[in-house]
Design goal:
Two copies of one chain form a homodimer. The first copy, chain A, is an alpha/beta fold and about 350 residues long. Chain A contains twelve helices and twelve strands. Chain A folds into three domains: about 50 residues, 434 Repressor (Amino-terminal Domain) (Orthogonal Bundle); about 130 residues, Rossmann fold, CATH 3.40.50.2300; about 130 residues, 3-Layer(aba) Sandwich (Rossmann fold), CATH 3.40.50. In chain A, the strands form two sheets. The first copy, chain A, has a six-stranded parallel beta sheet with strand order 2-1-3-4-5-11, sandwiched between helices. In chain A, helix 5 packs parallel to helix 12, helix 8 packs parallel to helix 9 and helix 10 packs across helix 11. Chain A is elongated and about 75 Å long. Chains A and B meet through helix 4, helix 5, strand 2, helix 6 and helix 11 of A and helix 4, helix 5, strand 2, helix 6 and helix 11 of B.
Chain lengths: ~350, ~350
């Protein structure tokens, strides 16, 4: 007779293997109705828990996953260091998965987690990710998960963020104090809540200084470096911007590229602020004024929350929220002095 | 009666679970003698292969691991992109593990692979790793593995490297052509073969230009940023170096830090070449002359080899070697013109 497995139960009941496993282990995360359905079928098919499988599953554990768009960005590189500082202490492996800003890739990775490969997940979503279409809502119910930086507003889950609206407000006010009358914000996404919050702070600062917010005030840039370079060059020539807020590290570099191509002097022709944790920011020509995000601390806080949940199943993980402030570091790519 | 598992067989025979599994599957990688020992014990204990365990094991697959020291370095960030460009096409997940230059952490990660979590491994070893003490030699026999960039010379295994000796020779010659008489090389390790090859190229270039190679010609720097900064400042003041070859990205940034602290002008007081893939190298003040390593192509080539081995068990993976050349990109941190 063929061995009856959790997978077979899952297929017959159209549930995930994680749900079956939790139902069999009487987890509080599973409804009574589902538990009854699972137990009834398990009894009918004479399912016997398999000690080797369960030991294999345990073996696949002591591991947390970090799902991020990329590592070629100091923010994520530092956040990983913060996460690993905690995981190391707990004796856990950290697996890093990259989505390369692809929503499809992200979904494939999330599906992989349903096999029980990892004990918990730390995630910063792609620029394409919108909560509604997403398997994330389901995953949050099945596995401990903490969102950091790029969170999904619509999903009830643990979140570690920075003060994006306030940081953008500060950056905009700093440009205006330096004489900018035509500032523009370069945004990486129309969907991400952090992008929308930065837009909000930018818009509020313009309003508070009687400057107009128009269709030309925000440029949405793709992940394609060459396309972004062309888009930027054209927009700067057409709109005569005098200040730019680049909301990612790559976009800050792209502005230096565009300024060089157009023979514009930073900061005299064009002031620049980058949201960035670049270790070379102070050695750039000119040195780059940055909104520096608390990347290490955000990673550390996210991991600390996750381990609390792994330690105690009664910890109300999805209700946890923490906002860690960013800092404006004034250097030579902008003209205003510190307040 | 307790189920007999592969793990039990492994414990009884003092072999890894991977070896037992391969022996039971009649793998050519296992000696006849070992196969006989495994089969004899399996028969004695009435071992029955477990279909669920085997499916779980399969489920834990379609995955390759990348083991690297860190991601806060453009070389590794780009190499990952090269690796993922291949893995994506093959429908594989890529798990990234960081060693943070710790040999102990590396060993813990390698042990984790013996559970069959991944199908293959791409590795760039830590600055502490010396072949002799290492579990790597054993792992190479148990799982398909490709070394890239930081390889272990003493182990017979597939290796993708760049022309480190030639690149260091070129860098040194370039400094000498720009008037340097007291060049120094900053090295990250006394153990790594790539470090030793760079030393060799550096030494040869000095000899070919009748310059002495002394105890002060090489500085070994640790992974500790603050200690490196102090070490560099003191050494530059004491030895009056006029040219520096920084063999990692972090060391290049450290030289800019030290020069600023000592009020030395680059390139007039001190010329600098960095082994680096920094996207901001051309925007630094002054722009940084680099030995640019083919990071993306090295990652891609390493992944391509690994997938060949995963596709065909007769592919002689450990015999594969490829060297992809680096390029000298001359910018403003050095004085000599191009040849």
């Amino acid at each position: 007779m063929e061995n009856v497995t959790i997978r077979m139960l899952a297929e017959r009941l159209q549930l995930s293997t994680a749900t079956i496993s939790k139902a069999l282990n009487n987890s509080h995360e599973i409804s009574e109705e589902t538990k009854q359905r699972v137990l009834a079928l398990a009894a009918e098919l004479n399912y016997v828990p398999n000690p080797y499988a369960s030991s294999l599953r345990k073996k696949a554990s002591n591991t947390i996953a970090v799902v991020i768009p990329e590592v070629a960005d100091s923010f994520f590189a530092e956040a990983i260091n913060g996460i690993e500082s905690v995981a190391q202490e707990k004796g856990y492996h950290v697996l890093i998965y990259l989505t390369h800003e692809s929503f499809q890739k992200e979904q494939a990775i999330l599906r992989d987690f349903q096999s029980g490969r990892v004990d918990g997940v730390l995630i910063s979503v792609t620029t394409e990710t919108a909560a509604a279409q997403h398997g994330l809502e389901q995953l949050v119910k099945e596995i401990p998960i903490v969102f950091f930086d790029r969170v999904c507003e619509e999903i009830t889950a643990a979140k570690i963020t920075t003060d994006d609206a306030t940081a953008a407000y500060k950056a905009t006010t700093h440009l205006i104090a330096g004489g900018c009358r035509q500032p523009v914000m370069l945004s990486a996404s129309r969907h991400l809540s952090i992008s929308n919050k930065r837009t909000e702070g930018f818009r509020q600062a313009l309003a508070d200084h009687q400057l107009p917010f128009t269709a030309a005030s925000i440029i949405y840039c793709s992940n394609d470096t060459i396309a972004t370079h062309e888009l930027l060059k054209k927009a700067i020539q057409k709109e005569h911007y005098d200040g730019i807020i680049a909301t990612t590290e790559k976009l800050a570099t792209a502005v230096y590229e565009a300024a060089a191509a157009l023979h514009l002097q930073i900061p005299h022709d064009l002031q620049v602020i980058g949201f960035s944790n670049l270790s070379t920011a102070k050695f750039l020509n000119p040195s780059l004024t940055t909104i520096t995000q608390p990347a290490f601390d955000m990673g550390k806080a996210a991991a600390a929350l996750l381990f609390k949940a792994l330690k105690s199943s009664s910890f109300a993980l999805p209700e946890q929220q923490e906002v860690i402030p960013s800092t404006l570091l004034i250097r030579n790519s902008t003209l205003a002095a510190a307040d």
